[in-house]
Design goal:
The complex is a heterotrimer of chains A (547), B (365) and C (394). By secondary structure, chain A is α+β, with helices and mostly antiparallel strands. Helix content of chain A is 47%, strand content 11%. With 394 residues, chain C is α/β, with parallel strands linked by helices. Chain C is globular and about 90 Å long. The chains are: A alpha+beta (547), B mainly alpha (365), C alpha/beta (394).
Chain lengths: 547, 365, 394
């Protein structure tokens, strides 16, 4: 708490920025010093095996999952070898059958006429006796430690100040299965998993093009998480890639556990309820966005990938739109637009009309609603607010439910809150219907947008309760103005609607057929606007052609 | 340059249209009908023609000084101190006009929709949102406008169509019953409204393609004139020559919609159109006033001025009139001639003549 | 600095919001006016009668059948010097806010109408809550009695009368129409007449006998000179009025059969169109009214062969005659007995002769009363239902 008060106070009292600036840089130092392995990076291995082992054991002291296996070289017992690996992160079969077997049991490695010397041992081992698919030689202690902790096996040879890092990663991981949060009826079902290499392979399989570039970096001073920046060179705007990499490099944080950490550190609008970066766990979605000229960011340890830039209209789009035919896709897009507006405005409009604008209702409806409301003791606003909160509670609880009690709780929710509350006269049936409809509607479109919209429902509800329809309109206008100020990585958030790119409107409220989507979105795919050849619409063969 | 944003031609047209329409729909019809009775629509036609001339005037003037707004090239033409006086007059005009608009805005909401709510609540809230928009620059409220104006225009068209059963087009006869003089008198106020296209002189430096300025001004004037004409015609068709008996015939026209026992009482739609449209209209004038003040004081950025200008506008709107009837009287009698002679035609014409005589100004077209 | 301003702004906004939502009215705080009645008391005061909805009764009315229902409306009256004055007094007797937005009808009592309507209509046009599409009706007798009736089919008698007015069986006038007619110099206002008549019977059950009901119905038209009521047109004459004003929506014309004595046939009118052409020769004014009628023969008590062209022509001629007859009935009453132009002939004259109008407009009713009116009626028999010639021959 003290951390917040000090800067706030200094700012309120108008102290100069430089003083707080100094605080910041000292905090930076603290993050660096604790966990950076600057020292390690600067150290080398020694030629003595035992010295190396001791040193490494000291650094990795109290790490009981690190295994040190010393053994003799088959060729020459005088040469001692040792491998270091972390139990649980390596593929043990690989170690025993590929590394240890060949070194401990196999035939000599020199051919006729060659001489075997201790000096050449390392080179010969590396070239001839390690049937491992990926090896790297290094004499840097920092790299060795990193390798061990990443699941590689490090081979140390006595007498050489070099280590061989063998790729041997293999651990228990979730297999590629169907996405739990972004489901489609037609289309691929694969979703990303927590291992970044697998995820990248899923992308590679969709885009078999040498221009699909994957640049990796490590972020997080303590966690040293692998982060990959993916883009298609030639389609993407180079400035965008540079910007993304710059923003990523600026991050100085101890841990990156999920893309959400990165998102909040590089987004354009930290104070807005709307996201500037899209997140998804579907490889087909990421692939489609790469093909439009966007950049993807993947993080090891989470199935969610980020893509930049983001446009507001994407909250109306799902991948399935592009797989189903255009009439149904267009219809469902329009429906989604309607549900978006509904989930934002329905409770507010309901409260506004019932409390302030009774003239809007047809007389018959008014009388029947009035009949309901005779019974209810609360004002409409309190009732709607309470029901909304109740629904949010239900929703949150539903996510965290253990499966066993799921059934019971949903019954409780439906019966008690819905039925019994209405019967008891605590809430009106109309309110329950409106709130339920709103809740369901918020699931009909992109989940990340629905989170922002959910938050905004409540201030609008308050405005509706105090100023009626006028309050709702003002609230909506404020949101619109706010949306108009947002940019995501340089692209205005509301394009292609405002500023208007008429060509891009083909994909906003409706989805025109694939033979009409000739261009990439104008502001994102600027480098390579044409995505499709024209004239692809299927037509009957010209008359007179023999069948 | 205090404003760094740039807008493209489509946005500019839409911006110039919304600068006039919302209050034009609701406040002008009664005054014109009062003077010209059932020939009010001819007055609007006349006003549009006059406005086209004003548009030409504005753009010719503006294009002579590319990159400079009215506030700046007034100094170039007339010299530093007279120019500053002219610029100050325009800043005053924009502030005054905005205060009037704000007052109209609040008055309609209180009179027709929520009588118990104090007018300042409406005005404060909309000024706050407008300040937020203006603070973020020209591009922001242009984008909001792009979203809103098409919806507004479509709604207006639909509402007019829905009111068709109540219309009797014969009510515009007989034409020119009282001669041409009432028609001309009735054209003064709409001309002052549609003539607000003179704001092009402030907008031209911020267009993406300045040479399209003529096209923009003419298109905007025609669209504005068209919609005001339709509205006047519809009002006369519904209410006849006594249209002036209602303060807000447009609103009452919507109240008459009555279809299938379900589609009735649609005036909250009018409220939505009103609030959204006036928000952007206020933003445009607010922006012009803030920008002008910044340029007058030769500041680098107009953002710090947004709040003070807003406060002045709000205070003025409260003090200027003590009742809705006073507002109407002022608008009907005084505003038309005042705005037209001085700000819309008078000073710009003077500036143009002086500029031509002195041979100033760059590219002619 | 920015934070300080933000806090200040927030405080101001909160103060504004929390201090009270001024226009807020919960639905259960509303007294919804469905119908209103204006009467003039003998001492010159206004009596306002309000028919208020009782939504609570409607809630329970779902399941009950023929059992004793709670009344769905509540009627209350009070007197005062102006309508707003009365409303204030009523506000002390009604526990909720009076809400006019769903008002369907305003009934004016005969006395009030004879005295002058302008006195009472201003409230309804100024107030933002009242709507111009509310129907105006004139009661034969007291408006209060009309509002105190109930309806067997609808939830309230006000809605019942409103639907009747909307169906345009007679000439239905709303506030806007009335105001326009009153302000126009070439026309005089009219309004529907409403009175209490016998309306149907509730069939009896084992426990109860059948009950005869009385209710309000539209039975003609009220005729005004400027703002004052001068007389009535009965239902037949109202038909004529509709023909002359060109407002025929639907209707039936019954003619005697051409061949069989004593038997009749009925033609349902599908479309009707009227044009009034005024003529002026410097001295006198006359009018030619052209009416076009289209109808279907839907009932035939006799058995002429309507598949024959001559028969149809004869029928059409008869239809024209009947229409002219009806129109003349109304015309005579208006010209002769009352001397008021209620057909907007003056408006037509104004449109055609705008220069001459200013001379005549002040004494237009006199001019109208003496004007000659000629009719040309064109009738077309288009269809005859699903049967052509009646197949009664053996």
């Amino acid at each position: 708490m003290a951390r917040f008060i000090k800067p706030l106070r200094s700012r309120l009292l108008g102290r100069r920025k430089s003083s707080s600036g100094k605080d910041n840089s000292s905090q930076d130092q603290a993050v660096d010093n604790a966990f950076s392995n600057q020292e390690l990076q600067n150290q080398d291995l020694s030629a003595d095996l035992q010295a190396n082992l001791l040193h490494i054991k000291e650094i990795l002291s109290d790490c009981s999952d690190v295994v040190y296996r010393e053994f003799d070289f088959a060729q020459d017992e005088r040469i001692k070898l040792a491998i270091i690996y972390v139990d649980g992160m390596v593929d043990k079969m690989q170690i025993t059958s590929q590394i240890m077997r060949s070194l401990m049991l196999d035939a000599p490695l020199v051919e006729q006429g060659e001489e075997f010397t201790r000096a050449r041992a390392l080179t010969l081992i590396k070239k001839r006796l390690l049937p491992v698919q990926q090896v790297e030689e290094t004499n840097n202690l920092g790299k060795v430690i990193d390798a061990v902790l990443s699941g590689d096996t490090v081979l140390l040879v006595d007498g050489h100040a070099c280590a061989i890092i063998n790729a041997s990663r293999g651990w228990e991981s979730r297999k590629v299965e169907e996405s739990q949060t972004e489901m489609v009826v037609r289309g691929p079902r694969e979703a990303f998993v927590e291992t970044i290499r697998v995820n990248l392979s899923l992308l590679r399989r969709k885009i078999k093009n040498p221009n699909l570039k994957i640049e990796t970096m490590r972020l997080g001073e303590v966690t040293k998480t692998d982060v990959a920046v993916v883009y298609i060179k030639g389609i993407v705007n180079d400035k965008l890639v540079t910007e993304v990499k710059e923003r990523l490099n600026r991050i100085k944080i101890d841990a990156i556990l999920e893309t959400g950490y990165i998102e909040e550190l590089i987004e354009d609008n930290p104070w807005s309820p709307f996201c500037s970066l899209n997140h998804t766990e579907r490889p087909d979605r990421v692939a489609a966005q790469l093909l439009e000229g966007r950049v993807a960011i993947l993080v090891d340890g989470t199935p969610y990938a980020l893509t930049a830039p983001l446009l507001f209209v994407e909250s109306l789009q799902t991948p399935e739109d592009y797989y189903q035919r255009w009439p149904i896709s267009s219809a469902t897009r329009l429906l989604r637009l309607f549900t978006l507006i509904l989930s934002l405005l329905a409770p507010s409009l309901y409260v506004a009309v019932i409390t302030y604008h009774h003239e809007m209702l047809p007389t018959a409806l008014l009388l029947s609603l009035a009949a309901q409301r005779e019974v209810v003791p609360f004002p409409a606003f309190i009732e709607a607010f309470g029901m909304e909160v109740a629904f949010e509670i239900l929703r949150e609880a539903g996510i965290r439910l253990p499966r066993q009690v799921g059934q019971a709780v949903s019954i409780v929710g439906a019966l008690i809150i819905g039925e019994a509350a209405v019967r008891a006269g605590l809430v009106g049936a109309g309110t329950v219907i409106v709130v339920a409809l709103t809740g369901i509607a918020s699931f009909a479109y992109c989940y990340s947008a629905s989170i922002s919209i959910r938050l905004l429902r409540f201030p609008l509800l308050v405005l509706a309760g105090t100023l009626g329809l006028y309050g709702v309109i003002c609230g909506v206008l404020t949101i619109l103005v706010h949306l108009a100020t947002l940019r995501s990585f340089g692209v205005p958030f509301l394009s292609p609607v405002a500023p208007l790119s008429a060509g891009d409107l083909k994909d906003v409220a409706v989805r025109v057929p694939w033979w009409a989507m000739l261009h990439r979105p104008r502001l994102i795919g600027m480098a390579n606007p044409q995505r499709e050849a024209g004239g692809l619409k299927p037509t009957p063969p010209p008359a007179g052609r023999k069948q | 340059m205090p404003e760094v944003g740039k807008i493209d031609s489509k946005q500019a047209i839409l911006l110039m249209v919304i600068m006039v329409l919302p209050t034009g729909f609701l406040f002008v019809a009664a005054v014109t009908a009062h003077l010209a009775r059932q020939d009010g629509w001819i007055s609007i036609l006349l006003a549009t023609l006059v406005a086209l001339l004003i548009a030409w005037l504005a753009v010719s003037l503006g294009l002579r000084f590319p990159g400079k707004t009215l506030f700046q090239f007034a100094e170039v033409i007339l010299g530093r101190w007279p120019g500053k006086v002219v610029a100050f007059l325009y800043i005053w005009w924009y502030i005054h006009m905005n205060a009037e608009v704000l007052r109209q805005y609040g008055s309609l909401l209180v009179a027709a929709f929520m009588p118990e709510t104090p007018i300042s609540v409406f005005m404060l809230l909309i000024m706050a949102i407008a300040a937020y928009a203006v603070r973020n620059g020209l591009e922001v409220f242009s984008r909001v406008n792009q979203l809103i104006l098409p919806l507004i225009l479509v709604s207006v068209v639909i509402l007019n169509i829905l009111a068709a059963p109540e219309m009797n087009i014969k009510q515009i006869l007989p034409v020119f019953e009282h001669g041409a003089v009432p028609v001309v008198k009735g054209a003064v106020m709409p001309a002052a409204w549609i003539g607000e296209i003179i704001t092009m002189t402030v907008l031209i430096p911020y267009l993406n393609k300045a040479k399209e300025a003529y096209r923009i001004a003419v298109t905007a004037t025609l669209i504005t004139g068209f919609f005001m004409l339709i509205t006047q015609l519809v009002d006369i068709a519904i209410f006849g020559p006594i249209t002036a008996a209602w303060l807000f015939p447009g609103l009452d026209g919507v109240r008459m919609i009555h279809l299938a026992n379900f589609l009735e009482r649609l005036e909250p739609v009018v409220m939505v159109i009103w609030v959204a449209g006036v928000l952007v209209k206020i933003s445009v004038f607010y922006w012009a006033a803030a920008l002008g003040s910044a340029q007058w004081l030769e500041l680098k950025d107009y953002k710090p001025l947004v709040l003070p200008v807003g406060v002045i506008i709000y205070a003025l709107s409260i003090m200027a009139h003590d009742s809705l009837l006073d507002l109407f009287a002022f608008l009907g009698m005084f505003w038309g001639p005042y705005a037209l002679t001085l700000f819309i035609v008078g000073i710009p014409l003077l500036l143009l003549i002086v500029a031509v005589i002195r041979g100033q100004g760059g590219s002619r077209h | 600095m920015r934070k300080l301003l933000a806090c200040l702004a927030l405080l101001i906004i909160m103060a504004g919001i929390l201090s009270g939502c001024w226009s807020r009215k919960e639905m259960s705080e509303l007294a919804i006016v469905l119908g209103a009645g204006i009467d003039r008391t003998p001492d010159g005061q206004v009596r306002l009668t309000l028919q208020l909805a009782r939504p609570g009764a409607l809630a329970g009315a779902g399941g009950e059948g023929a059992g004793a229902k709670e009344p769905t409306t509540w009627v209350i009256s009070e007197t005062g010097s102006t309508i707003l004055d009365v409303q204030r007094k009523l506000a002390m007797r009604i526990s909720r806010h009076i809400n006019w937005t769903h008002n369907v009808i305003v009934v004016f009592g005969e006395e009030a109408a004879r005295h002058g309507m302008r006195q009472y209509t201003n409230f309804f046009t100024r107030s933002p809550q009242t709507r111009e599409i509310t129907w105006i009706l004139v009661a034969k007798g007291q408006a209060k009695d009309i509002l105190e009736t109930t309806s067997r089919l609808e939830n309230s008698s006000a809605q019942d009368i409103g639907y009747l007015a909307r169906a345009k069986a007679g000439y239905s006038v709303n506030f806007k129409d009335f105001k326009v007619m009153l302000a126009t110099k070439g026309s005089n206002p009219i309004a529907s007449r409403v009175e209490i008549v016998e309306r149907g019977v509730s069939p009896g059950t084992e426990k109860e006998k059948s009950v005869k009901h009385e209710g309000a119905a539209l039975t003609g038209t009220a005729v005004f000179r400027e703002e004052k009521l001068v007389g009535w047109l009965d239902e037949s004459e109202t038909r004529g009025l509709l023909w002359l004003r060109g407002e025929i929506l639907r209707g039936v014309i019954t003619l005697p059969s051409l061949t069989d004595q004593g038997k009749e046939m009925s033609v349902e009118i599908m479309r009707g169109h009227t044009e009034v052409e005024p003529y002026y020769d410097g001295e006198s004014v006359w009018f030619v009214v052209k009416i076009v009628v289209e109808g279907d023969l839907l009932e035939q008590q006799s058995s002429e062969d309507i598949t024959e062209r001559d028969v149809r022509k004869a029928i059409e001629k008869e239809i024209s005659r009947k229409v002219e007859e009806k129109a003349r009935l109304a015309l005579e009453k208006a010209q002769g007995e009352y001397g008021v132009d209620i057909f907007d002939f003056g408006v037509a004259f104004h449109r055609k002769y705008p220069k001459i109008w200013p001379e005549l407009e002040d004494r237009w009713d006199e001019v109208f009363a003496g004007a000659y009116v000629d009719f040309t009626v064109e009738a077309h028999l288009r269809r005859s239902g699903l049967i052509g010639k009646r197949g009664t021959e053996r």
